[in-house]
Amino acid sequence: MNASMFDDGPVVRSDRIIYTASAFAKANTIHLQEIGELKALKPHTSYRENLDSYLFFLVLEGSGRVDLEKKEYLLSAGDCAFLDCRSPYDHRTDADDLWRLKWVHFYGSNMNGIYNKYRQRGGLPCFTSQYPQKYRQLLKELHDIAASDLYTRDMKIYEKLTALLSLLMEESWDAARLSPGQARSRCDIQSVKDYIDQHYMEKIALDDLARIFFINKFHLTRVFKMHYGISINSYIQQLRITQAKHLLRFSPLPIQTVAQRCGVDDANYFSRMFKKIEGVSPGDFRKMWKK
Predict the structure, then answer these.
(1) Of 56, 91, 136, 242, which sits most exposed with the smallest number of CB within 10 A?
(2) What angle do CA 8, 38, 6 make, to 5 degrees?
(3) Pairing relationship of beta strands 63-68 and 79-84 according to DSSP bridges
(4) Helix (H, G, I), strand (E, B) or coil at 147
């Protein structure tokens, strides 16, 4: 077994699994470090910093607070925290309303980028969840898998941690938590994205988008990347390459025509762009998928 379970202490009563993932899981997946449920028996404070870990917890009952980035967050039943444990923070519960929590610590080489994406999309370190039961069920499933002796345990843990992150990303877009300016910006940018999705095979210039949607082009560039994590030009390029791959695989069209169907008149430029993104030329890509 790569898991150890602990029970009671003087400050909390807990059902805790400290987990050691395989070398494969540590190198290739988002992996579990610790998971459990606790009931505070006394007021106490937990402090962390410089820990290569990410913490998610759900408050089941009671209340407490998190201090992070010079800000205090008050939490009660149904509230969640999603924290980067490399940054200093503490969480504590008070004597008059001791809390009960479910929590999980996890890490992966790509977690820094995922957490940054979460924050860029509007995700908060502490928030009131629309889906407390979904989080509760995911944490139960993670706990049960960690306690099992399944041969595929690390991969099943990875599956559940990915589901947890997907749910967190979904909640980061919660319009109810956005300011009026942020909500309006999100609506405007969605309209721009919808337009690009329909017209990417045509010539699209940033100045044209700014004119069509009455948005300053510098503001448009900044807000689009903030919401979608990619520049407008890179997004258009991504759509064109996806369409090109479809045409190369499922049509006999010559590469010049494929380029034009994707909004690129210069076949040489198209080939350079395709190879830069896919690592192979359009012709070689077609040959590989025709085998």
Answers:
(1) 242
(2) 40
(3) unpaired
(4) coil
Q: Are 48 and 120 in contact (CB under 8 A)?
A: no
Maximum distance among all alpha carbons in the chain? 74
Q: Identify residue 48 by its one-letter amino acid code.
A: R
43: closest CA among 95, 101, 90, 91? 95
DSSP string, 65-118: EEEETTEEEEEETTEEEEEETTS-EEEEE-TTS--EEEEEEEE-TTHHHHHHHH
Q: What is the mean pLDDT of residues 163-169?
A: 95
The SS3 of residue 21 is coil
- Distance (Å) of CA 222 to CA 9, 112, 216, 218, 227: 50, 21, 10, 6, 9
Distance CA 124, CA 177 (A): 10
Distance separating alpha carbons of residues 103 and 261, to the nearest angstrom: 50
Question: What pLDDT, in 10s, does the model give residues 23-76?
Answer: 999 999 999 999 999 999 888 888 888 999 999 999 999 999 999 988 999 999
Considering only CA atoms, give the Rg of the chain: 24
Contact 126, 79 (CB under 8 A): yes
Two tokens at 189?
């940018």
